[in-house]
Amino acid sequence: MTEEQVQYWFDIFGSLGYIAGFLLPFIEAFIPILPIIVFVIVNVNAFGWFVGTLLAWLGTVVGSYIVFLIFRRLTHTKYMQKIQQRTSVQRLIHFIDRKGVIPIFILMCFPFTPSALVNIVASLSHIKAHAYLIVLIASKFIMIGLIGWLGNDITTLFTNPIRLITIVLVIAIVWFVGRKLEKHFMHSSEE
């Protein structure tokens, strides 16, 4: 789908386009296989950097926080207690309880971290809801801002190969660093 087609659909729906710009990242928090990077780039190219980034950021923060709150409510259900009894989940919960919100903040800054998993595990830990909201606001701001900046003018990606190569390299580096940090924090041998 080209930028003109995306803009055409947003123009047809008028202010509903803003709702779609918010809802797509919001829904991604519930269905993590959806591509948050694509939603942010589409938003930024349809609404401009500021509005597009703001819509994507609000959508992903609100969606992630609602997932956190839902699973926090379900903590005492039989299914969630069964999940909590897994050794790997117990280890991760204890790690989060000991280290606090910094590892979660770092993990959530990277677009390739499975945020739904982090939301669920954080809901099982003893992190206060307001502290988690602050972490979400800050980390998602960094993540969405970076993606928005990289995908701000998608047409130049095809006319300026240096920019395309730079973006591919930045995404590869972010992915690599994110995986290393995720492996360190999620599978720490200190447990």
TrEMBL record:
Domain of life of the native organism: Bacteria
Alphabetized UniProt keyword annotations: Cell membrane, Membrane, Transmembrane, Transmembrane helix
Keyword Membrane: yes
Transmembrane parts of this sequence: 12-41, 47-71, 101-124, 130-150, 162-178
Membrane topology: Multi-pass membrane protein
Keyword check for Transmembrane helix: yes
GO cellular component labels: plasma membrane
Every VTT domain range: 35-149
Signal peptide: none
Subcellular location: Cell membrane
Similarity remark: Belongs to the TVP38/TMEM64 family.
Protein name per Swiss-Prot or TrEMBL: TVP38/TMEM64 family membrane protein
Source taxonomy: Bacteria, Bacillati, Bacillota, Bacilli, Bacillales
